[in-house]
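Researcher: I'm comparing several assemblies side by side, and this is the next one on my list. It has 593 residues spread over two chains. Same procedure as the others: predict the full complex and return the structure.
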Amino acid sequence: MWSIIQIELYKIYKRPRTYIAFGAIAALIWVIQMGLKIDGEAYAAFLMKDINNTLVVDGKVLNGYLICYILLQLLLVHVPLLVALIAADMLSGEANLGTLRLLFTTPYSRTQWVLAKFIAASIYTILLLIWLAALALFLSMFIFGTDDLFLMKSNYVVLIESQDVFWRYVGAFVFASFSLLTVTALGFLMSSLANNSIGPIVATISAIVFFTILSTLNIPLFNVIKPYLFTTHMNNWKEFFDIQVTDNNEAITGSILNIQKIKTSLIVLSVHIILFVGASVVIMKKKDVLS
Amino acid sequence: MPVIQVQSICKNFGSLEAVKDLSFEVKEGEIFGFLGQNGSGKSTTIRMLLSLIHPSSGHIEIFGQDITAHRNQIAKKMGAIIERPDLYPYLTAKEHLQLFAKLSQKKISASQIEHTLQQVGLSNRASDKAQTFSLGMKQRLGIAIALVHQPELVILDEPTNGLDPQGIADIRHLIKDLAKEEGKTVLVSSHLLTEIEQMAHQILIIHQGKKIAMGPTATLLDPTKSLMKLSTSNDAAAREKLASSEFAAYLLEREEGIYITLPTEQIAALHQYIVNAQIPILSLESKRSLEDYFLQITSQSN
């Protein structure tokens, strides 16, 4: 099994398309970081214009931690689309090339191939996330320095001390890996249903957009199914940045306001991953390879 | 024990019966020719042998083992090329062989990979990516992939597609050598009937998913009669003699040469008759081709 995972990783490594996502993330982060480096103070003033009259903020608001948070808010919505480019091509791309039949005539079962391909796609996804973390967090910390993290939520503000921030990003990235692996599994399922590359990629992206809209709409009919939609839970990495407070409204270091929400989201996402991959295995086992 | 044993397999795609009650056996060390027109069910059958398609009914055993239950063990001893050479455009010829050598679960040395590239005439393009290859070169690389792990059974679906005449001859010699020198069993399908005729020991012909003929090549080519071409030092005299003999009924009207279609057991008598007539024989050769036979029986089937 390990040898076919290695082979799948080797093919991903050799394929030019692999590097599009890495390049796109690097370009986006670099553009945003440069923009904020040049004109960040004006941006920070704009963000805080509503509270400047009631709150005096000392220190460096526009620091590496805040930049990373801004980047994640922007990018974690779009990175799934980049993940879909690879994941949704894993089976259908081979079917389209005709190489799937070569693989399926080797001494490995279809179940082994599907699982190896999913693991390889998952490793790619994790590497993409590590790349995102390296650029969004570490590069921002290097360029902008670190300080307390000051976040403006819809009707309150959160202030997290600088020494209490880094582990939250680690947690957020681990959570994001579950979100992106769900997208990988969905892309994989779509890939098992088709014999061309474009269809599954478009279908995966469409499914994400469709379910994201359902998750966002506040309509009673949809509220019933919302807790079961993976898109409802994908953005809950932000929960790591909501902190508990004492009765005196003082932040409790090392706390998370709603840890149960994170746990529930991780369970829902994990169930989706298992269902999507399980369905892919069943479909591929029964499929006649005609391409 | 036959290497391949197919018993009454059928494959339906919806209402279409692609393969109907097909049975055949392939013996060890033989080259088995698989013939049929486009859409006759050849590739569907080959895909069922490779477990790419599940039969609707019937049973397939390879190396005496059920293909469904022991697919992975059987696959270690098989190599195949299916219809067209499908490759990874971003990998070189050598990288393809290294990849599929690793997938074979056998220890394949670097020299074995070099030898396989040499066998198919791709040594000088080993480091070039597949996307730069012509169709013929892709076909050669596809064959190399099928052979790199030294399989006991080689299944080649249209292996000479896209090859030039020299390439076709090279592959024909390679297939013959695989059976003769290395004792491999080869199942080969081709639309080039003369190619099959020149290398196969056994031939199976299917039409519209059904077996219409099977047997040793020599027997199939001449099931009842032989089409002979007679060349003598005096063809006019020979024709005149034959026209007034017991062979007159077998004599064919052809503008060039003397063609006779007669029962196989009478060939010796024909030869003796011309010798007795004191007309020197330059040659007496069978002219019935597999193509003639194939077209004849498929048209009968239609």
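Model: For your comparison table: The two ends of chain B are 35 Å apart (CA to CA).
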